[in-house]
Amino acid sequence: MNVLRLKAFFSRQWQQMPAAHFMAVFGPYVARVDQVLNRFDPAVLVSAAAKVAGTDEEIPLRPEEQTA
Questions:
Q1: How crowded is the C-beta side of 57, counted as CA atoms within 13 Å?
Q2: pTM
Q3: What's the pLDDT tens digit per position in 8-32?
Q4: Domain residue spans of the chain
């Protein structure tokens, strides 16, 4: 579940950052998260993703890391 929360965080960051900057900062991590999630049955991922609220409160962030 935490990996899905991280993926949701990356998605929010993608929406507010220029693509080149996002890839420089988060690109390797996004690739690794996708590798981990590809091991699971897609139906299980859909079910688990429905439980992710998609807010910054779900993961520990410093104030400067918060999304808008």
A1: 1
A2: 0.85
A3: 999 999 999 999 999 999 999 999 9
A4: 2-20+27-41+49-62
